[in-house]
């Protein structure tokens, strides 16, 4: 009786164990080449990354366990890469539009075909952008972008000090080479947070944003916090008018969360840059809800 009972339990136990192994890694350490992980796309069981400013025009491909498997070089400049996204055909778009100083007079998005290795340029400005510095009126810095239905959607980043209104501005551009003035679609008040990454799920039409804050406690101790923002039930492509859910994903430790990508119907991955205390960048698995 005991032997038969044990044998009957084995298939169920094996099924339970096999289900557990399909869950992607909870946390992975990125290789030294990706020390300032700023953008992420997940496609076909691989992760495609780029660094923040200071690196060349490179895309790094890793496995889901963090091993570096490929490095692509774009036929492009690299001033300040801030986000990457992919369209339905798998074409990649790399946003060279970081503008922390406010001195840039235009941004560039590089469209990269992974099969032909061809790089094309989408050059754009914001209305009123003149590169007069970060404290002048306007919001001309961006670190978040998604590709949806033939358009690129940019979500700007305000600055974390001074009397700033903490508004996200949503701009739209055609996802094809050319020179454009970005179209302002909408804006949203987001107190004590700036947006640093975006991801879009074309199946559920959910938009995900990662946003963080940085401050010094008691005037000297560095601290930060980060939130995952989910937007649903919006009219047309006016994402910022949708239903908003916000939850905290990190707090206290001074870490910049900048890269965000959809893994599947259950999980996202968020990337965080290396810090003085943690000398390597990491990626963490998040539940979508």
Structure, explained:
The protein is mainly beta and about 290 residues long. The chain has a domain of about 200 residues: 4 Propeller (Hemopexin), CATH 2.110.10. Helix content is about 5%, strand content about 50%. The strands form 5 sheets. A 5-stranded mixed sheet has the order 6-7-8-9-13, with no helix packed on it. β16 and β17 form a beta hairpin. The N terminus is likely disordered.
Assign the CATH topology of the domain at 35-198 and 255-287. Hemopexin
Radius of gyration: 20 Å
Biggest beta-sheet profile: 5 strands, mixed
Named CATH architecture of the domain at 35-198 and 255-287 = 4 Propeller
CATH class of the domain at 35-198 and 255-287: Mainly Beta
How far is the N terminus from the C terminus?
44 Å
Q: Helix tally?
A: 1
Categorize the overall geometry: globular
Number of strands: 21
Spell the H/E element sequence.
HEEEEEEEEEEEEEEEEEEEEE
Report the sheet-strand fraction: over 45%
From the helix content, strand content and strand pairing, which structural class follows? Answer: mainly beta
DSSP helix fraction:
under 10%
Strand order of the largest sheet: 6-7-8-9-13
Averaging pLDDT over every residue, what do you get? 88
Note poorly predicted spans.
1-21
């Amino acid at each position: 009786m005991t032997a038969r009972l044990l044998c009957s339990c084995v298939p169920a136990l094996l099924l339970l164990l096999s289900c557990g192994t399909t869950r992607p890694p909870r946390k992975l350490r990125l290789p030294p080449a990706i020390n300032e992980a700023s953008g992420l796309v997940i496609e076909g069981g691989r992760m495609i990354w780029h660094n923040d400013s200071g690196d060349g025009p490179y895309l790094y491909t890793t496995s889901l366990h963090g091993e570096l498997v490929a490095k692509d070089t774009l036929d492009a400049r690299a001033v300040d890469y801030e986000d990457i996204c992919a369209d339905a055909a798998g074409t990649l778009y790399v946003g060279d539009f970081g503008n922390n100083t406010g001195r840039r007079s235009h941004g560039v998005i590089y469209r990269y075909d992974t099969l032909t290795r061809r790089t094309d340029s989408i050059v754009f400005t914001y209305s009123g952008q003149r590169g007069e510095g970060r404290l002048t009126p306007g919001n001309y810095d961006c670190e978040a972008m998604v590709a949806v239905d033939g358009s690129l959607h940019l979500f700007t980043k305000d600055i974390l000090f001074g009397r700033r209104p903490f508004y996200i501005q949503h701009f739209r551009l055609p996802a094809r080479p050319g020179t454009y003035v970005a179209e302002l679609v909408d804006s949203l008040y987001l107190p004590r947070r700036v947006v640093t990454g975006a991801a879009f799920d074309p199946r559920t039409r959910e938009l995900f944003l990662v946003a963080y804050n940085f401050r010094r406690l008691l005037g000297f101790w560095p601290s930060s916090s980060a939130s995952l923002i989910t937007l649903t039930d919006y009219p047309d492509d006016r994402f910022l008018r949708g239903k908003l859910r916000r939850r905290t994903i990190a707090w206290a430790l001074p870490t910049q969360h900048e890269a965000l990508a959809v893994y599947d119907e259950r999980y996202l991955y968020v990337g965080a840059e290396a810090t003085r205390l943690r000398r390597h960048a990491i990626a963490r698995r998040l539940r979508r809800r």
